[in-house]
Amino acid sequence: MSLSRRDFIATAAVGTAGLHLPLALAADEKPKKLVMIAGTPSHGPGDHEFNAGVLLLDKCLKDVKGLETVVFKNGYPKDDSALDTADGILCFADGGGGHPLIREKRLERIGKLMAKGVGLMCAHYGVEVPKDIGAVEFREWIGGCYENSYSCNPMWKPEFTEFPKHPIANGVKPFSIRDEWYFNMRFRDDMKAITPILSAKPSDAVRDGPYVYPKGPYKHIQENKGRSEAMMWAVERTDGGRGVGFTGGHIHRNWLDDNFRKVVLNALIWICKVEVPKDGVASSVSEDDINANLDPKKKK
Asked: pLDDT over 90 for what percent of the chain?
């Protein structure tokens, strides 16, 4: 693949990180920078394909004017200086105690960026942090997080039929797709400043389990039968930054779905304060795209 002079210079400036700058951008304009961190290989083939997923999203953002992207594969970068000039950060990786943004005292590092108004989006397992390490910060930064034994993680197929009047929902049409959609997140008190983007009502059977892990069921999940649950949400922070949580993303092939993909692409440019087109971010994904950059994994 050939690179323009601008792309070549920009790529060299970030070392092994992948950088993409739309050629249509005028030379005197300063683009917004989105840094995307993909986690290390996880789960079996086709699941938790963090590297392939982030590279696919990067490809889909190539024509967004006013946006520059930097991709880090295989976990938190050894040289994270690109974050110093980031407008938005995506973390699509395994969470819990090994969450890339909480290990090695990185909460302080990320916290300083958040205080500057940098946007943050966490996807799938990346929305989970331990109750005693990072949960308070994540509720401030992205509005809510997955809490072990409070939230749950069934495989199910919600029906997303209605959307709020919000830029992230621009151009998104009703869709339904099977994934490990987490719900009953630990949100800020009174859902302060939070806008649910993708919401649906789990069936009684979904609430009754089994969940992926632990299998459950949990009494408090069963007691809320009939309640709508937010599985993607957005928040505008008092520091001027924006945050998004997205609980889907377990199954890599789901990126083939136009609406599943669009709502995530819209969110990624929204956290960077790039205007979301009225019809959302346009993109297309082929079978070849889906099969590209997959991690080498043992068969299930």
From this structure: 88
Residue 40 resides in a domain? yes
Asked if residue 151 lies in contact with residue 183, where contact means CB atoms within 8 angstroms, the answer is yes
- 231: which 2 tokens? 């599985």
Whether 135 maps to a domain, the answer reads yes
Does residue 191 sit in helix, strand or coil? helix
Q: How many separate domains does the chain show?
A: 1
CA distance 238 to 242: 9
CATH of the domain at 114: 3.40.50.880
Is 19 among the domain residues?
Answer: yes
The burial class, CB within 10 Å (0-12 / 13-18 / 19+), for 29 is: exposed
100: preceding bond cis by omega (within 30 degrees):
no
Residue 41 DSSP class: P
Full residue range of the structural domain in which residue 58 is found: 5-290
Phi/psi of residue 118, nearest 5 degrees: -70, 140
Rounded (10°) CA dihedral 138, 141, 144, 145: -30
Hey, what amino acid is at 6? R
Residue 66 CB coordination number (10 Å): 17
In tens, the pLDDT along 100-135 reads 999 998 999 999 999 999 999 999 999 999 999 999
Could you tell me if residue 299 is inside a domain?
no
